[in-house]
Amino acid sequence: NFQLEKLVESVKSDLGTAQEEKVKALHDEKAKGCNVTHVENLLSEKTKLATELEKGEEKSKKAMESLTLDLQEISKS
Questions:
Q1: What is the per-residue burial (b if ≥16 Cβ within 10 Å, else e) of 14-41?
Q2: Distance of alpha carbon 71 from alpha carbon 46, whole angstroms
Q3: Domain tally, the chain
Q4: From first to last of its 77 residues, what are the pLDDT tens digits of the chain?
């Protein structure tokens, strides 16, 4: 009877440990999912900002070329 009680206590303890590990694993998996989503959002934002920067550089380059042409026209006059 004593051995049976010890066995029941041991099984309960193991079950409690297994449940705690399951909860921790689920929490860790959820955290990883959130981190992946966050990283994906950051990469998307980085790509968007890089594209905007390239467009801005192109506009600046065209504006400088236009100013150069205008200055050349003025200096010819």
A1: eeeeeeeeeeeeeeeeeeeeeeeeeeee
A2: 37
A3: 1
A4: 889 999 999 999 999 999 999 999 999 999 998 899 999 999 999 999 999 999 999 999 999 999 999 999 999 97
7, two tokens: 């066995």
pTM of the model: 0.57
Give the structural domain span for 45.
1-77
What sign results for the dihedral spanned by CA atoms 44, 46, 52, 54? negative
Map tokens 């992946």 to a residue. 36
Residue keyed to tokens 């309960």:
12
